[in-house]
Every structure is written in C-alpha cells, then in structure tokens.
Specification:
heterotrimer, A alpha+beta, B alpha+beta, C alpha+beta, A: alpha+beta, Ubiquitin-like (UB roll), DNA polymerase, domain 1, 2 domains, five-stranded mixed sheet, B: alpha+beta, Aldehyde Oxidoreductase, domain 3, Aldehyde Oxidoreductase, domain 4, seven-stranded mixed sheet, 21 helices, globular, binds flavin-adenine dinucleotide, binds iron/sulfur cluster, binds FE2/S2 (inorganic) cluster
C-alpha cells in the first residue's frame, strides 16, 4: 500500500465555472471532483453512494454532459463548466424539473434526487421532447431505491410540458 | 381490456370523506420537505462539516471467526495526522437493540464473529490518513472454526459464536401451538406439504450510514446520525458511554433511505461519540458501501416447511409452519424476527388451528435484522405459493379460493391478534378486474403468465422494544403569536414522508396550510419520544399523537374565539387560516388572531398529544410480536414473460391494490406502493446477500460474495415494469383520519405473485427466492425429464423443538394465555417483562 | 468515502510528449483516459500507479475519420460519441450497439474507446476492496499466491469484460500502438493474451492511439450482450457477428467473436468458416451456434451461474445470426436487455 505522505503533500489549485460562477479552489490533488465540491467548496447537494461509478448519485454536468463526479479528478476540471443541483434554479425560481419532482412525489428520501435532476436536465437540453423510453434510458445510470422510478418519469414528463409552455409564452 | 384507472390522480384540491370536506388530508400536495430535497439542501449526516472535524475509519476483522490475541496500534498512532486509536477495551460495555440480546460491542474486545466486525478505530485529520493508518495496526488473531450456515450451526455446537442463546449456536427456538393442529389435519380433505427457501437480501439505501459527534460547548454530547431510531440509539449511547441520557442529544438526520437498515444502534455511532468526547473535536464517520453490507441487519435467509390441511372448498383446517433462520453473527432484532416469521400467517385467511416452530441460529456472517416487512415476506412467500398449488389441486381459481377464506374486519385470529378493518377481498377483486385476470390466468400463450398473491402487514408494532408503560409516540405543539405552529416530535424522516404526515394532520385540524407549520423532528432534545421509523408505526402512532395535540390546541383557540365572537364553540370552523362561525362565515377571526386571543386568555399556548397502542389480548410468551392497532392488506397480480430455452424472465406489468384506510397525501401513498413493488421485484428476481466459503482445506475464509452496489443487483429504471396502483380507502377508525400503513405491506405479495406467474407461464415451480433464469432453466430441465417440475429445497434438517406453548384459540375458549406455561402464569406480566429487559 | 491513493499527475498535450513520459516512467505510470476503470481500481487499491498520465489533453486522440476506404477512430473518442453518432451504422452497427450498452449513460459520456479496449480483466475475487481481498489472503492476480476460481491453477482466469473489443474483432479492427521507440499496428484479435494478469500485449510504454477499420461496405453486423440488469452491468457473455452476403443470401464472409467467456475475447473462426458459402437457415444457424459456443469457457468468477452462461452461449449466437439474416429480433432484445 502507498506510504503515508498525504500530510506533507502540497495542495493543487484550479479555476473553473461552478454553476455559472468562476471559482478558485485549492485541494489535495488526489481528490475527485465529488470530494472537492463537497469538502472544499461546501456544495453538499451532490451525493455519493459508492464512489466507484456504480450508483449514479454523484452525477453532475461537466461541460453540459452528465458525468460521475466520483470518477473525475478535480485536477482535470481546470477551466471547465460544472453544474450541480445548487445551480439548477434560475433567478430565484426552481427549475421546472425541480417543481415537478417536488409536486409529484419523485423525491422520497431525496438522496438520489440531485443527480437525477441534473441528468434529466442534460437530457432535456439535448432533446426537449423525449418519450418515456428515452427518459428511462437516460436515467438508467441513476439508482433510486425508494420510488420505483415511475413518479420520477412522470415528473420529467410534467416538466417537459411546463418547459414547452414557458417557451411558447416567451416567443 | 378493463379500463385502467389511477385512483390517486385526483385533480380537485379538496377531498371528501364521510361527508366531511378536507383541505389538506387526501389532497395531492407537495410534501413539506420536497423543496429542500429538490434543491439539494436537505442536510444528510455526511453533509455536515464542522470546523476542526476529524475523520474516523474502522479496522475490521479479516476473519469470519477468531479470538483477538493482541492489538498493537503504536505504528498507526505514530503517523502524522493520526489523533487517536480506539480499541475494544475503550468501549467494552455490551449493547444491542433488544434487551434480550445485548451481545454487541462497539469494537470487539476479544472475539470477532464475521468478516467486517470492527476491532479498532483510527481518528485522523484526513479520512485518507485514517484509512492508510488502519494497515499499520497489528492484530494477532487465533482463528476459530467458521460456521457458514444454519445447518453447520446446528451440527457445530462448539465453538459457540455467543455464550448465550438456547444452546450451542442456536440463538432462539420458538414453539407455539394455537389449537390442536393434528385434529385440523384429520378434518382436512387434502394435506399439502411444501418446502421453500428465501434467500437473504439487504436494504441498500443509496445513502451510506454516516454519523458526526461533538462535545457540546457545555460539555455534553451531540450526535447526528442517519438512524431510523434516535431513541434507541440514545439509550445505547447512555449505556455504553456510561453517561446520563439527559447529557446526550441524538439528532436523526433525514435518512437517504433506511428500509430497516438503520434501525439498530451501530458500532460506528458509538465509536465517533466516544472519540469526540476524548478529543473534544467533531468526529465524523461515513461508511463505504462495503461497510454498509457489513452493518446489514437485512432479510434473514429462511428455510421453511409448510404443512396445510384444506377442505375441498379451500377452507383451511390447520397449518403447521417450521422455519430455520440464518441469523448471522449477532442478535439484532433476531428474536423478534423469529417470532415474526410465524406471526402474520393468520391475519390474511382464517386459520382455525396453527402451529409454529422457529429456530434462529448464529453464523459467521453480518447480522440479519429487520428489512421492509420484517420477518414476514419469507413465510408469506411460502404461504402464497402453497395456496397457488392448493388452488390448482382443488381445481379452483386462486383468486376465488382466497376470496372464500379471507379474514373479516375486527376478527380475532387464532394467535390472538385483533384485526382492524380488513379489505383484502376488495383488494383481490380490484386486481382481478384491473389485470384482466379471468381472461389471462391459464389462458396466455406458453411463455407468458400471470400470478396472484396477497398479504397483510402491521400498522405499528403493538409493543415497544423495551418494556415500559409510556406512550409510543408524543407530539408537542407550540402556537406562536405570529400565526405559526411548530411541531416537536421524535419521529424520523427516512423518506417515507413522516414530516409531511405530521404537518398535514396538524394543518388539517387547525385549518391552516402545511407551509405555516414548522417541524423539529428526530431530535431527542427537542421533541418528545417517538420510538422510531420502523414497523410502519409513524403514520398511525405519531399521527394520532399529532391529531390529539392539534385537537387540544384547537379547543383552546375555539374557546377564546367563541367568547370573542359570541358564537357557541361547536359552531366554529377552522379553515383557510381563519376561525369562523359555520352558519355565518363572515363572523370570523384570522388564525393568528385566534392564537393571540387564546394566549391572552390562557397564557402561552402549547399542547401535547401522545399515543399508546391498545393492550393486546395475546398474553402468551411471544405474543408481544405481531399485535398491531390495525393491519394493512394488499393483493397483487404480476405478469411475467419467460423464455423456455434460457429461462430468462422479465416482468412487463404489475397490478396492485392496497387497503390503506386513507391516503393522507395520495402521491406519497402511491409512491410508497410503487417503491415497495420495486423492492419486492428486486427480491423476487435478483437481489441476494450471498457469501463465499473458500475451499475448507485451503482456507477458513467466509466472505460476502460481492459487497458492492454493482454486484448486489438493484433493479434500474430499465428493469422497472409499469405498475397500476389502486388504493382502497375505507377509513379505519384506529388511524388518524382513518389511515393505515403503506410503507411495507405492498412489498409482500410481489415475490409469491412472480413465482405463481412463472408457473402459469411455463409450468414450473420455483420454490425459492430469488427466481433466477438459472433456477427456471433447471426446473424446465426437470420437467422435460419427466420429473417434478420444480426448483427448491427438498429437506429440512432435524431440530430439537421444545414442547410448544399451547394456547387455545379464542373459539376454543382460550384467554390468550398458554395453558402449559406455568412459570408465566404464576407471575404478573410486567415484572416478568422487566426481568427480560434488564 | 473511498479515496484515491496519492499519485503524481501528468497532462501531456501531444502524443510525443505522452510517449516520452511513459518511456521515462516505465511501469510506474498508467495512462488515464475516461478513468472509469482505472479510478475505481485505484480506490480499491487493485492498481496503484505512481503516476497518472491524462490523455484527454491530446487532441489527436479524439479524431474520427470515416470514409469509403475504412475508418480511423481516435482512442479517446467517448463511447457516447460512438453510440450517438449516426455514421456508425450498417457495417459498424455492432460497434455502436456495443458502445451503447456499456455501463450507464453517465459512464458512456466519460469512458473512451481506448480505455474500453485496454480494460483490466475482471473477477469476483479481484474487483474488491483492499480489505476484502485481505480477508481471502489475496489472489494470484494481485498480492496473493492462489487463484480462488481454480485453486490448482498457476494461471489467472480473470475475465475480459470489454463490450467493444468483441464487436471490433467481428469487424476485423486493428489497433495502432505508439511509443517513444516507434509505432506498430496489429489486428485487435492479436492484442490479447490468454492470461488474466498479463492480458494485453500493449507494453507499459505504449499508447493505444487509434482503432483502424477497413471498409465494411456490404457488411452487416450486430452485438448481443448478456447481463442481469438493463444497465450498469458488465457483460457476462457477449456475441458479436458480422457477415457479408451474396445477392441470394449466401454468406460470403463472416466473423464471429464471443466476449466475456475467457481471459480474452474469442474469435469463433471455425463457426465463421462453416458459414461461408452457406445461407443462414435454421439448420446452418444451429450448427454454427453449436460450434461457436464450444469455445466459450466461462468460469465461476462473474455474475450468473457458469454452467448456465455456457448453456446459453449457443442461444446468443443464434440471436446474432438470426438478426444478420434479417429476422425481427426486437421482441427478444426487449425481453433480454429491456432496451427499446
Ligand atoms: C459501474 C461500471 C460499469 C461498467 N460497465 C461496463 C460494461 O458494461 N462494459 C464495459 O466494457 N465496460 C464497463 N465498465 C468499464 C469502463 O467504464 C469501460 O470499459 C470504459 O470504456 C473504460 O474506458 P476509460 O476511458 O474510462 O478507461 P480508463 O479507466 O481511463 O482506462 C482503462 C485502462 O486502460 C488504460 N488506457 C486507457 N486508454 C488508453 C490508451 N489510449 N492507451 C493505452 N492505455 C490506455 C488505462 O491505463 C487503464 O489501464 C464499467 C465501469 C463501471 C464503473
Ligand atoms: S481468476 Fe483467480 S487469480 Fe485471477 S483474479 Fe480471479 S481469483 Fe484471482
Ligand atoms: S458515488 Fe456512486 S457513482 Fe459516484
Ligand atoms: S428517493 Fe430515495 S433513493 Fe431515490
């Protein structure tokens, strides 16, 4: 096993965009994005259930794509864009996905929820009108132990309708 | 096709029941904690970061069974960044969830009983440092014989895994007889004998257990933990740390899923508490997924033998059930689990004579305990599959057979459980209709099939874990001049929606919005005791306590308002944040004004409510497990598709009806049903807590086959079928607004319904859970070879059962006592229980 | 929280620089692509490289060239890139299908083609934490002396679990390996050793730079994967098949590969040869399936019972060949994979 040198190791620094804002952070260089978000930046909205890529609870959007923050070195995030659940709402309002999840029982214990929300957002950014099968597929990397997923699908579908409505009223 | 309707999708914002209109109850509503959850602001235990916080890791035994000869932590302590190493001698006092099995130590002192049993703790500045220092602790072990399963445990009385229990490695033996079963068999037209095996499985909450402890500024102890039972943790901490409980504060953080897996006091909680006291700094531990598998307390593997006698029309004349239960290395809830395995058989169908024998053994594996349905899914599986076999032999439709024998409301069962409302028949009729059962059963093309099964579950355990005469749940309400109401209650939010239940009930009674309500729950300093989030007890018990507290507050307010408005109290109504004359609504005050009036009149307004379940008539020893204020009922139809070449199985659709009494918040109720169906389906098809015994000549190792969330197979979004949920709402007067449980019951019928559907699809019986392609293929091969088309256990090992306690059932003039339990009869009951508890 | 061990981090911008680093570090460095295999292994202390060399800053590794004469695919293309790109159709279908059923959507956004090809072999006794492995006194592949799958064996039988490699083998792919001392190209089918430890012929100083494919004009291909759940799970058996047909439906050329049934993906040469010059009918498919299934030697070190995995192999070959013939296999696929 590795020898103990962690107490003497120097920290690393990166600058990246977190939820639309530039942040500088210094951290122990062995840390993953998950650890830096939670431990060095106080963004505890992103959860973890395995730290091995096996549950999906740590998903965030990296440059717009859903990835597992437990398997991304923080060192690899310099200059990149990260979106977490903390950055989902805009202008003081919840994102339609958040509203729908809250109203339709899609969050029971709420532990898988942040990662599912950002993953669903990435889906809708790419495909504003996914059908049930596409939603199922897009969320197939996020385990939820509470809901049985069905109310999650319904909430995503409700959000789709709401977003479409908003877009129509804007144009 | 019958029309598929989702009864929970009501669009109007009021619900009606008994001619009374509700504004909150029964109305689909955003749960009170939803916003925090969808914004990532819910503070789970591992989300707590405090200045100077140190991190704890546990060194765990690599041996399944060994004596600890020596521990030398000097190398670890010498590491830069390591603050403290604790070992067993620092925390030697034994504890455990049940008074009768205080058999755990926070860190093993001299005996390790499974791979993963903790022997030392390192507390360091960084978690990584703590982890790496674990390898520098030198432990000398003397390896003992590995006992890997109940049969081995029966055959190997020495070495004992524990020095207590029945004898050898038998932890608990139960033998109860309600009426003469042999007479029952003599009356039967047909007798069925079947064996089943139910594999163990685990809760797998996505949140891994975590705890943070601090020494308070005033020198007391506070611990935040992902626990379902803060009150029981409170008691265990006081015992092991030898501190007055009044100097300890336990805060149950919202659990990221529990399902029973966070209901025991755990070694890691005690360790961080001790470390925080020693170091006077915050200490955190968050378990890895593998360690969560070592905490376990999941479903017991159970081998079962059912002997059931029936008349030609399906009437049951007698049933005899034997179970052999793999308990793992510690007691946990195991004594209760052993009773539960035999308790609820009588609550669904009328069984005039019933005999139960159960045996729980210790083995060198992580301890089993309560998982959703605690002890009852295993025998429910056997019973419901056997009923399917009985129906076939009697040439009856399985739905009709069950309709003919369902228990009735308010009945007393052979084992003296008083039932509440029983709408099982309606559940069956609904799923039969919705699923198109009559058109499908035995009529679908080869490879497709449907299966039906039913179940019942407690709405709260009728007895507490430790003997006492106090309420099971308490609620305090504070009425504020500002117009707000604050709820204080020990109940613990584990995702099931307990906070929402409390807020909904209080808001309904007081005519305010749930948004006007603040909640302080799961905190032993702030709220009165609630025993915990287990046994589906919170909605009924904490709910009734909240109802009582709210009604009392309402009475005070009403008195003050009545005086002010000069309206008789009975005419006042509370709604829309106003208190008004129901005959002249313009005569009103605001809710805030009402509080001010009451405060002026009576002084500071605070009310309390509490709930104690009714006394159970089951007075015999062991009768404490199973009684409940009322029971929920479920029926499910599962459709399967099976590939006859590979045995591959898929479940395209499930229909389920659940007798809930009343759905307090319909989307949440439906979510509990769907979540239960999900978990049941996982158990039915793929979930397995499996162990590996390495070749004995080479190794003594016995390891969890694959303690990871990848290889422990929890169904993904792609594996979840469509589910049609029907809530049967006939309010039960015992529940708040008529509500019964919904968190566990709907899991129970899924596994047997899948097994019965497989039989309908390809004509083979899988008398074992999980039902995997391999097993189906083996059974298909048996069928092809002209042998019994079945996969399942074929023998039940010999157990020296004790003479059963004989309890004549009510219809034979029984009074709830055993006629042959002389010792118990001699003593008054409370004393006897106290002896048990000490 | 599982934590990574300490490491040095290098992030070269060119292939040359990367080759120089590997040359200097020898076996102490490992390339890091998507990290979805290497980082979990590091957290479990199965692999503890002193230096991690990131490949993601080397732009030339992410290129795609698809033309009439064939294709060149950069090693750092992500599996999501491949699965979602409509150009990966017709002859290349098997690759797109394989990429699309790896792990989960998030992992496919991170995982690379090169990493998938170089994926460490897997085993129930190996893909475990340091503490777990300690409790079985480790095994041959890492830190121990016994193989717990076959205790008499002096060889490790850990399973090749890559999805894309069998697909690429059926497509006749080659790989280009680059090191400081030069580069070499070899058929993918020759990249692997029949050894769970020394499973790949890539030298530690080499970077897998490209996958090279000849034109697959006129070919049809498909990929079938067995796993327990609709996502997450590694394959525990897979079959890739590609064929070119004459106008009247006779097989002119065929390649079949069987994955996750040994230490390396297996080429079912005999079965493919048998099919040549024959139409795909019930009889020829059955015969080819029986012959192809013979080479599968699953052991008790993955999910599912090994005898069952062995017994369904022929069935999976049948599925693949029937699909190539043009049968509508969607219902079977849906039942099996739960993917639409
Ligand atoms: C939960 C889970 C499920 C998974 N399921 C599947 C599955 O179903 N099917 C499957 O095939 N895989 C699966 N994987 C494994 C893994 O995600 C994929 O194989 C992935 O393609 C690996 O690519 P990567 O870029 O992430 O590799 P990395 O982890 O970056 O690297 C893997 C190995 O390849 C080496 N390497 C990477 N790129 C190069 C290169 N260009 N040249 C030389 N060496 C290189 C690395 O040094 C390392 O040894 C799963 C992983 C997880 C965590
Ligand atoms: S096959 Fe044997 S040597 Fe190889 S990883 Fe598995 S147990 Fe270890
Ligand atoms: S924490 Fe489980 S996938 Fe990242
Ligand atoms: S809501 Fe609890 S895990 Fe998804």
């Amino acid at each position: 096993m590795a020898t103990l040198s962690i107490e003497s190791q120097k920290t690393s620094q990166i600058r990246f965009t977190l939820n639309g804002e530039e942040v500088d952070v210094s951290f122990a260089p062995y840390k993953t994005l998950l650890e830096v978000l939670r431990e060095d930046l106080g963004h505890t909205g992103t959860k973890h259930g395995c730290e091995l890529g096996e549950c999906g609870a740590c998903a965030v959007l990296l440059d717009g794509k859903a990835v597992l923050s437990c398997l991304v070195l923080a060192l690899e995030c310099d200059g990149r864009r990260v979106l977490t659940v903390e950055g989902l709402g805009e202008e003081g309002k919840l994102h339609p996905l958040q509203d729908a999840f809250a109203d339709l029982g899609a969050a029971q214990c709420g532990y898988c929820t942040p990662a599912i929300l950002v993953t669903a957002k990435a889906l809708l950014d790419q495909n504003p009108h996914p059908n049930r099968d596409q939603i199922r597929e897009a969320l197939s990397g996020n385990l939820c132990r509470c809901t049985g997923y069905l109310q999650i699908f319904e909430a995503v579908e409700a959000a789709i309708v709401k977003i479409a409505g908003q877009n129509n009223s804007e144009t | 096709m019958p029309e598929e309707k989702d009864s929970t999708k009501s669009t109007d914002s009021h619900s009606k029941a008994n001619g009374h209109e509700f504004r909150v109850i029964g109305v689909p509503r955003r749960r009170v904690d939803a916003r925090a959850k969808v914004t990532g602001q819910t503070r789970f235990a591992d989300d707590i970061f405090l200045p100077r916080m140190a991190h704890c890791k546990l060194l765990r035994s690599p041996h399944p069974h060994a004596r600890i000869r020596k521990i030398d932590a000097s190398r670890a302590l010498a590491c830069p960044g390591v603050y403290l190493v604790l070992t067993g001698k620092d925390l030697p006092i034994q504890y455990g969830i049940l008074p009768v099995s205080q058999d755990e130590q926070a860190l093993c002192v001299d005996h390790v009983r499974h791979v993963g049993d903790p022997v030392a703790a390192v507390i360091a500045r960084e978690e990584l440092t703590a982890f790496e220092a674990l390898d520098l602790i030198d432990v000398e072990y003397e390896v003992l014989k590995t006992i890997s399963n109940p049969e081995e445990a029966l055959a190997t009385p020495e070495p004992r895994i524990h020095e207590y229990g029945e004898e050898g490695n038998i932890h608990k033996l139960v033998a109860l007889e309600f009426g003469n079963v042999e007479e029952g068999f003599a009356e039967a037209d047909e007798i069925f004998e079947d064996s089943f095996f139910y594999q163990g499985n685990t809760h797998l909450p996505i949140e891994q257990h975590a705890a943070v402890a601090i020494k308070d500024p005033d020198g007391k102890l506070t611990i935040w933990s992902s626990t379902q039972t803060p009150h029981y943790l409170h008691r265990a901490l006081a015992k092991v740390l030898e501190m007055p409980a009044a100097h300890i504060r336990v805060i149950a953080t919202p659990n990221g899923g529990g399902f029973g897996g966070k209901s025991d006091p755990f070694n890691h909680e005690i360790v961080v508490a001790k470390a925080a006291l020693v170091l006077d700094r915050p200490v955190k531990i968050c378990l890895t997924r593998e360690e969560v598998f070592y905490c376990h307390r999941g479903r017991h593997p159970v081998l079962m033998k059912f002997k059931t006698g029936v008349k030609k029309d399906g009437t049951i004349t007698g049933m005899h059930l034997q179970t052999l239960i793999d308990g793992g290395a510690y007691g946990s809830y195991g004594v209760a689990s052993t009773f539960y395995c035999g308790a609820l058989q009588t609550t669904t169908y009328h069984i005039p004579r019933y005999r139960y024998e159960g045996c729980r053994t210790f083995t060198n594996k992580p301890p089993c305990g309560p998982k959703r349905g605690h002890g009852t899914p295993q025998p429910r599986f056997g019973q419901e599959v056997q009923l399917d076999k009985i129906a076939e032999k009697l040439k009856m439709d399985p739905a009709d057979l069950r309709l003919g024998i369902v228990e009735s409301s308010n009945a007393m069962t052979a084992n003296f459980f008083r039932l509440g409302t029983v709408n099982l028949a309606e559940c069956i009729r609904r799923v039969v209709q919705l699923s198109g059962w009559k058109e499908k059963f035995r009529k679908l093309p080869e490879g497709r099939g449907v299966g039906l099964a039913c179940s019942a579950y407690l709405t709260g355990a009728g007895l507490p874990i430790y003997w006492n005469n106090m309420p099971h749940s308490g609620v305090q309400l504070k009425f504020d001049r500002s117009g707000g109401v604050t709820i204080f209650c020990g109940a613990t939010e584990i995702g099931q929606g307990s906070d929402d239940v409390l807020a909904g009930i209080v808001a309904e009674v007081l005519g305010i919005d749930t948004f006007d309500v603040r909640l302080f729950t799961g905190d032993t300093d702030l709220g009165p005791v609630d025993l915990g989030s287990y046994s589906s007890r919170v909605t009924l018990m904490a709910g009734n306590a909240a109802l009582q507290a709210a009604e009392r507050g309402k009475a005070l307010l009403a008195e003050a308002v009545a005086e002010k408005l000069a309206v008789p109290r009975e005419r006042l109504r509370f709604a829309d944040r106003r208190v008004f004359d129901s005959t002249a609504p313009e005569k009103s005050v605001t809710f805030q004004e009402a509080i001010c009036l009451a405060e002026a009149r009576f002084g500071t307004i605070g009310t309390v409510g509490s709930y104690t379940p009714p006394k159970s008539p089951a007075l015999y020893k062991g009768g404490g497990v199973g009684p409940s204020p009322t029971y929920s009922y479920s029926a499910a139809v599962v459709e399967v598709e099976v590939n006859a070449t590979t045995g591959w199985i898929a479940v395209p659709k499930i229909w389920i009806a659940h007798d809930i009494g009343r759905a307090l918040n319909p989307p949440l109720a439906r979510g509990q049903v769907e979540g239960s169906v999900y978990m049941g389906l996982g158990e039915a098809l793929m979930e397995e807590q499996e162990f590996r015994r390495l070749p004995k000549r080479l190794s003594h190792a016995l390891v969890h086959k694959f303690p990871s969330i990848l290889e422990y197979k929890s169904p993904t979004s792609l594996d979840m079928p469509d589910v049609i949920t029907e809530l049967i709402e006939e309010p039960d007067p015992r529940g708040p607004f008529g509500a019964k449980e919904v968190g566990q019951g709907p899991l129970l019928p899924i596994m047997p319904a899948v097994a019965n559907a497989v039989y309908d699809a390809v004509g083979v019986r899988i008398d074992e859970v999980p039902i995997t392609p391999e097993k189906i293929m083996k059974a298909l091969a048996e069928k092809k070879a002209g042998r019994e088309p079945r996969f399942g256990p074929s023998h039940f090992p010999h157990v020296n059962w004790p003479e059963p306690l004989r309890v004549p059932p009510p219809w034979e003039g029984g009074d709830g006592n055993a006629v042959n339990d002389v010792a118990r009869r001699a003593k008054p009951r409370p004393e006897k229980e106290k002896v048990l508890a000490s | 929280m599982m934590r990574l061990p300490l490491f040095e981090f290098r992030a070269p911008r060119t292939l040359e620089e990367a080759a120089r680093i590997l040359d200097g570090e020898k076996t102490n460095a490992m390339p890091l692509a998507g990290g979805t295999d290497l980082l979990p292994n590091m957290k479990r202390r199965q692999q503890v490289p002193r230096t991690l060399m990131s490949l993601r800053h080397i732009q030339s590794l992410s290129h795609v060239e698809l033309g009439h004469s064939g294709a060149r695919l950069g090693a750092c293309l992500t599996l999501a890139d491949i699965a979602g790109d409509p150009r990966f159709r017709n002859g290349l279908t098997a690759l797109a299908q394989a990429a699309s059923v790896v792990a989960t959507p998030q992992i496919r956004n991170m995982a690379t083609l090169g990493g998938n090809i170089c994926l460490d072999t897997r085993c129930n006794y190996y893909d475990q934490s340091y503490e777990w492995r300690k409790s079985i006194n480790f095994c041959l592949k890492k830190d121990g002396t016994t193989c717990w799958v076959a205790p008499g064996s002096s060889k490790c039988m850990a399973v090749s679990s890559t999805d894309t490699a069998p697909a690429l083998m059926a497509l006749g792919a080659r790989v280009r390996l680059v090191s400081r001392s030069g580069e070499r190209e070899m058929p993918l089918s020759e990249l692997y050793n029949n050894d769970g430890i020394d499973y790949i012929k890539r030298r530690p100083d080499e970077i897998l730079a490209e996958v090279v494919l000849d034109s697959l004009q006129g070919w049809k291909s498909t990929y079938w994967k067995l796993r327990r759940r609709g996502s997450f799970d590694f394959p525990v058996l897979s079959v890739a098949a590609a064929a070119r047909f004459s106008k009247n439906g006779v097989v002119e050329d065929a390649r079949i590969a069987v994955g996750s049934a040994a230490c390396r993906p297996l080429v079912a040469a005999e079965a493919a040869e048998y099919l040549q010059g024959r139409p795909l009918n019930q009889e020829t498919i059955a015969e080819a399936a029986t012959v192809a299934a013979r080479i599968a030697k699953p052991l008790d070190n993955t999910d599912f019972d090994m005898t069952w995995r062995k017994r369904v192999t022929a069935e999976f070959v049948t599925y693949a060949l029937r699909e190539l013939r043009g049968d509508d296999m969607r219902p079977v696929n849906l039942l099996l994979t739960r993917h639409q």
